[in-house]
Amino acid sequence: xxxxxxxxxxxxxxxxxxxxxxxxxxxxxxxxxxxxxxxxxxxxxxxxxxxxxxxxxxxxxxxxxxxxxxxxxxxxxxxxxxxxxx
Length: 86
What we know:
Elements: H1 8-18, H2 28-42, H3 55-68, H4 72-84
């Protein structure tokens, strides 16, 4: 019995897993360290800010966040983070 819907990319991953097509990542320990660093940077203490957005922009952000499977606050934070680190 299926209790949830998978996105197309998730269905592809499941299909590949079931067919034994997935392979171990090259330099797995290095990748773990890298992603651990990403997680630590993400979890650094954050500060609250107030910002005014148009209702239309906010609604679009919320829709996009649902598609991404994250909260809209997290989406906004990630957009700002990407912009400031380019």
